[in-house]
Amino acid sequence: MAVQSTIRAIGHQIVNTVWRIGVAARFFFLTLLYSGNSFRRFHLIIKELFSSGVMSLIIIIVAGLFVGMVLGLQGYETLKRYGSESALGVMVALGLVRELGPVMAALLFASRAGSAMTAEIGLMKATEQISAMEMMAVNPIARIVAPRFWAGVISMPLLAALFSAVGIFGGYLVGVVQIGVDEGSFWSQMQAAVDFREDIMNGAIKSLVFGVVVTVIALFEGFDAPPTAEGVSGATTRTVVTSSLAILMLDFVLTAIMFRGA
Hints:
10 helices, about 260 residues, about 85% helix
């Protein structure tokens, strides 16, 4: 009996997971379908851009600066063993543009903006604001979900680029200003080694994919949350956990595809 109960519980969990993935896919396609209304009311997207993008600037800038400074310290200690201190700028730039910039910015975006989207939509559902919109023949996906979706998709690559730029500046402060690496070598080798198409564009594509995934997860969890305080709390937690795991898994897949021949 215990074995049967275990198998039944595992089967129920698998069926429930597949069902949620299907519902989330349908939710995503409906969001794309009703996005035209959002672009006709572009002020809604601008408002959400401020909420999800501008309000995330502080944490992105501070985190990017310190990540770049840590990269500068660790990179210098490693490169010094091989007499390659002048390549510090290359290591910092490639590490940020290819990997740490998109991934760290997406994780911070999921923690700050994604959780806020889930909580906001979940509370709107709990207070029956979404039901009131449906009664007034207002499509909640077109009015609430789509503007937030496009705001997240637009702001994520910009935040990742800012994270990488601030991180490179942090590496410069530690490597050149504090430690004393030659400034000309730091910048010239970086410019020679970082390729726009292979490195910068691939990093931008990564951040765009992360923005789509994180925003869809956050909006779906909020829209699907049970209309209770406990339900909204659980949905917010699931947003952060699921988004973080999705970012890390997609990062591996995208890196294997993009930089396999690099």
